[in-house]
Amino acid sequence: MKFGGTSVATPQRLRAVAARLIARHDAGDEVVAVVSAMGKVTDDLLALAHEINPEPPEREQDMLLATGEQVSIALLAMAVQAAGADAISFTGPQVGIVTDAVHSKAKIVAIDAACVGEALAAGQIVIVAGFQGRTTDGEITTLGRGGSDTTAVALAAGIAADVCEIYTDVDGVYTADPRIVPAAQKIDVISYEPMLEMAASGAGVLSMRSVEFARNHAVTIHCRSSFTDTTGTIVKEAQPDMEDAIVSAVTHDRGEAKITIRGVPDRVGIAARVFSTLADANVNVDMIIQNISEEKKTDISFTAPQTDLHRVTQALDACMAEIGAREWVIDDDIAKVSIVGAGMKTHAGVTAKMFQTLADAGVNIDLISTSPIRLSCIIAADQMDDAVRALHTAFGLDATDVIEEATPC
Amino acid sequence: MKFGGTSVATPQRLRAVAARLIARHDAGDEVVAVVSAMGKVTDDLLALAHEINPEPPEREQDMLLATGEQVSIALLAMAVQAAGADAISFTGPQVGIVTDAVHSKAKIVAIDAACVGEALAAGQIVIVAGFQGRTTDGEITTLGRGGSDTTAVALAAGIAADVCEIYTDVDGVYTADPRIVPAAQKIDVISYEPMLEMAASGAGVLSMRSVEFARNHAVTIHCRSSFTDTTGTIVKEAQPDMEDAIVSAVTHDRGEAKITIRGVPDRVGIAARVFSTLADANVNVDMIIQNISEEKKTDISFTAPQTDLHRVTQALDACMAEIGAREWVIDDDIAKVSIVGAGMKTHAGVTAKMFQTLADAGVNIDLISTSPIRLSCIIAADQMDDAVRALHTAFGLDATDVIEEATPC
Predict the structure, then answer these.
(1) Which residues in A202-333 belong to E strands, given as ranges?
(2) Choosing a second label site near A159 at 20 to 30 A (CA), which of A168, A178, A213, A334?
(3) Of A45, A49, A78, the CB nearest to B60
(4) Is the confidence metric ipTM above 0.90 for this complex?
(5) Which residues face B294 on adjacent strands?
(6) In this complex, do B77 and A88 lie within 8 Å of one another by their Cβ atoms?
(7) CA A234 to CA A11: how far, in whole Å?
(8) Which residue of A has its CA nearest to B128?
(9) Is the CB of residue A372 less than 8 Å from the CB of residue A276?
(10) Chains A & B: contacts with CB separation below 8 Å
């Protein structure tokens, strides 16, 4: 049972989480909880670090940030004990979450959860700090964004848990964002591949990394609400008898920008030069399109997260002269809409239907990218909501009864 | 170099400590710093714990409190690096401070400071979290009050440091509290035994535990000011050529209370029953006096810290009927004044001189306790200052030139 920072932000909420753990334990289940730092603690610690050192060394930043989750687990264990049940807390290093040595975004390489098994066998509720681990040398590391979800999934794999429940402020994964599409429906079951594509294309409920880890270790995830007992969305391996919907969901992403480099000489190796420079600058390039060339010149467009734009401009400034391009321009008034579904692989005509639907809605498509189970289009930002709604209806995802007070996805 | 919570309470002060470490490093010394949690962080964490659980389990309390020092070391390492020097931080568990499993007041049983040696050899300033360690099972423990001083002394022993500098808000150990005795002098050198007795009888600069540890491992302590570069007080093994002053210092303690049990049957085992009950209740009994009995009844008086009084009353309520005593009364309007000095062992007449001095000053002595190098008297609280001044003068401790703006001891 994994709870995020909002769920443990105050003593009162910690008590509520404790009550949930105890109820499950009393029902006869063995319970392991993974928790994040309380509320905005991580951000506060980062601000303090930057006040002292504008570029905090990452080893020391991990040393600092790891305290956030350590406070949460100690307090949650106290809350469980105050309510009369037995609990024990473990830090990531203690629980045997071994990572590589890449501070601030370490990857889990091994799990030795022996102490968890012992505590469970002793009837204790086990509470583990998310987001953190240790190297084989005993260095403290953190797992980066979405790290607590990854801890939960990895631990579930390590102890062969029946299910990894990820508690969030929404009650599951939806066919689209209910704030945009009132007719959006909660997805009851989805397999890893489409869930991964959804996470990659803007659905923010589960982090890509945790879904990837779950897929690689066949961990069943139950994504559900912290506030209700309603069943949420189950993410698990595709079953032979699981009839895949052609399209499972329509996702959107307003966080990208389109960069176009104009007048690039149409020579071998130029594109490689541009994108290796961007990769060196740690820019997460998503879609890439090279337009039809004219007079030995071509235009290269790509998308990247808006948060990477300062690195994009630095990188391009550095290589423009060398590649002999004319200029580059940024358009951050764009949106990406995607349709995702494992069924798309085997159904012809999905691409045509998407384009026709957008055309009928008067939406102009700027860039296109595809995967076997996803189709994404870059469009103008102000047409995003219309596009998402039109696609949701066209692919038969609308609920029959529209929920008026929809929960945001 | 050990710095307490006040010295690292803000980013600005952390930078000042960093500058001090770097200056020493630049001067050619190998530097290990031990730091406490920032300012009131430990108290704040304890308050949070008590909000969640009125009786926080000690294992989880240690898990919680250990985060305070971990934040300090990370930030201090960042501050050193921001100033251009190289630094690395270690938690108590990482640095190999192995303790017993008595949570919240663990005792150090072993130190394996290999990683400190490696970091020093690599030219790094090493920053270690005070107050914490781990058991052989990897459980996180804390060392209790004065724990960071103990960490510093233990680490100094573990790496065979030349000296363990303990930075504080006073500039050394004084012959008496300068707030009471303007003629008090800073002690340049003192051996472990009298320093221990001073710590035990009210001089608060160094904790008893750290001095005890230093004595057992022959660690030289330099107790000095965080704010100046003045030499402070050196605490080290008595040297053959070190002429001990008869009396090194006059100490006082206003934190005790006297409890008198009246009408106790004068039978074997009664006193044992009283004090074993108090010991079970974790009361720190200091002086014990059994008055002359009359009519097979006797009065038993003892002193204990005022902070233990609620436990004293609970314990006595529980056993009064059983021992058949009449009543008990508490007097917390008392003070303990002591004279301490390794030279007392070999000089006759010190006791007589103390009593005569107090008599001359019109001070009535209530209880007396002695050790080979200390003499303590319980007197009325309102006579404490006069008594301390009279003793300081009588034993030749007054400075010739009275410092007007004396630093508090």
Answers:
(1) 221-225, 233-236, 249-253, 256-265, 288-290, 297-305, 327-331
(2) A168
(3) A78
(4) no
(5) B297
(6) no
(7) 30
(8) A63
(9) no
(10) 102
Instruction: Please report, as a single letter, which amino acid is at residue A287.
Output: M
B215 Cβ contact partners less than 8 Å away, ≥ 6 residues apart = B192, B193, B196, B237
CA distance B299 to B258: 12
Tokens of B361: 């000053």
Q: Is A368 helix (H, G, I), strand (E, B) or coil?
A: strand
Q: How far apart are CA A144 and CA A58, in angstroms?
A: 11
* Strand blocks (E) in A274-356: 288-290, 297-305, 327-331, 334-340
pLDDT tens for each residue of B314-369: 999 888 888 888 889 999 999 999 999 888 877 778 888 999 999 999 999 888 88
Residue A351 domain flag: no
Among B306, B320, B296, residue whose Cα is nearest residue B259: B306
Q: B290-322: per-residue pLDDT in tens?
A: 766 667 788 888 999 998 899 999 999 888 888
Answer yes or no: do B49 and A74 touch at CB < 8 A.
yes
Note which residues in 46-75 of chain B have CB less than 8 A from chain A: 48-49, 51-54, 56-57, 59-61, 63-64, 66-67, 70-71, 73-75
> Which residue of chain B has the CA closest to A42?
B71
Are A377 and A367 contacting, i.e. CB atoms less than 8 angstroms apart? Answer: yes
CATH number at residue A78: 3.40.1160.10
DSSP secondary structure code for residue B342 in this structure: G
Q: Residue B409 domain-assigned? A: no
Q: Is residue A343 part of a domain?
A: no
Using CA atoms, how far apart are residues A104 and B175, in angstroms rounded to an integer? 51
The parent domain of residue B97 ranges over 2-240
Residue B101 lies in a domain: yes
DSSP tag of A349: T
